[in-house]
Fold:
Amino acid sequence: MDLPLIDFQPIWLSLQLAGVTVLILLVWATPLAWWLAHTRSRFRVVVEAVVALPLVLPPTVLGFYMLILLGPHGWVGGPVQALTGSALSFSFAGLVFASCIYSLPFVVQPLHSAFESVGKVPLETAQSLGASRLDAFFSVISPLARRGYLTAVVLGFAHTLGEFGVVLMVGGNIPGKTKVISIEIYDRVEVLEYTQAHILSAGLLLFSFLVLVMVYSINRRLPVQVT
Structure:
């Protein structure tokens, strides 16, 4: 009996996409989550709603507007193509951009909760002892919020890895360039190659289960230190 052939290129591409997306989101989401946790601005509710939109929007709707935004005539894709000569739509860079928007709430919300629990007192105490605001944040606040960071990394990575609607709309189905594991599963089902689809789907299912176990373990073993 011949073993089913599995194309590992979509798996590797998905891992790359998830890794790059999480790294960018950590840089982007940290100041946003800190601001949301401590601001008294009247616009806080609006910003929170915008951040949470990917949780309630159908992925195809979000993917459609991302495609328009990143296209040759879009607000983002147009200037980028004029500067670089390359289109963002149907490219790996476009997938990263769309994934950052799609997975944003899964990184911002754990950090937001962690920063709220930590509070501003540790930061103010460190500043009173002579530390700069930036140094106090990285040396005091970040370690105290480590549970939030770990949860954000795990959820952001897993959510990006399982994307389908957004990546299909923005990146299409280009082998070696934008064809990620979820699209590979869809292609296998379309041609009735259920064995390969089972293997890939079972891998994602197992990974998702382990992610949830990890998140719950983090929440139990690393409680946020409240001051």
User: Anything to note?
Assistant: The chain is about 75% helix and 0% strand. Residues 163 and 182 are 7 Å apart (CA to CA). The mean pLDDT is 86.
